[in-house]
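User: Could you walk me through two proteins back to back? I'd like the raw sequence and the structure tokens for each, with a short line separating them so I can tell where one ends and the next begins.

Assistant: Of course. Protein one, sequence then structure:
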Amino acid sequence: RPYLVSEFGPKGYWDPKYNETKNNSVIEESDPEKADWYKKQWTSYVNSYKGYNIGGFAYCWHDRMEGSYTWFGLTDFKGRPKPAYYALKEVWTGVTQETLPEFTINCPAELKPGVEYAFAAVTKTKNTSDLKYEWRLLKDEYLDKVDEIDISEDPSKVTITIPKEPSDYRLYLYVVDKNNQRVTTASVPIKVSKRIPQ
């Protein structure tokens, strides 16, 4: 009987077999890595068995805000297409469209609660003058916003006062084109451990 692949998408954040961790916090894959994974799944598990199945559903349309604020989604929470959107568009239509370059967040190796640190958006692409930067600091568990970010004169750089409350936090970066039509994201976990009694 024909079958349907009812869900395919990024690797599950809950499975340590597929993910790297730092200080017991899951490292999120980059948007280009997710885009390649979407293409591989479609090509290997759906299209390769064409005639035996009736297709598959990419999971999911926009940021689901599960695992992290940006873990899932072909578009972000504002509806702006991510690289995964264009990756699937390419395998479905043959039309290739330029996506934004990959970004990472440069951060200090060690972070102490209550101390201010500098973070920066980093890319290998030289021409970034037309790009806009949006930053968010959220708690991992309920995605509560934490207002500890100061944007510098260069919007690709921020200063953050690390929260004193013990919790898992995550810093998010959204890089958007000048027309606000395309986006690529990055995130980095920030762990504030429980205080050790003196």
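----
Protein two, same layout:
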Amino acid sequence: MIHAARAMAPACLIVVSFSSAAAAQSPLPGDISGVVVVGPVVGAGGPSALDEGLGKLRASEDRLSIAADATVVWAGDLSERIRAVASIDMGSDTQPVAGLGELYLKFRPDLVSAWKVSGRAGLFFPPASLEHDGADWSLSRTLTPSAVNTWIAEEVKTTGVEVTLRG
């Protein structure tokens, strides 16, 4: 697993470099943000499922490894009321190493009308968690999500349309 983290290290550096360069002058209209988490992992018990065992942890028994995960999110206005959001997730111990996190259009309400209609369409997580308020279902106040929110992230991400009406 250490070799996978080494392969992930350049991607993490590119993410950090691109994000800081984007803050100075972005080639895309909009905002680029991201989260990079790198750290040691030591397992207890049998071999992990990632090492073809039955263990539920990322790391195998008594073996130190380095895990790296990164998320990059781009959000930009297409018009006054339509915003596009796209995110890419990367993980050192996943195959493939990178994948699409979310990709959707967000429709903002008309602020002068009595009824506020908003929504989004595409691939996204439902608004079911107060602890996952960061970029692409990431956590801003803790390192470990609750069990129900982990399940939602794995099972409930949807491709569809969400409409909100407020009076």
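The first strand starts at residue 31 and ends at 42.

Let me know if you want the two compared in more detail.
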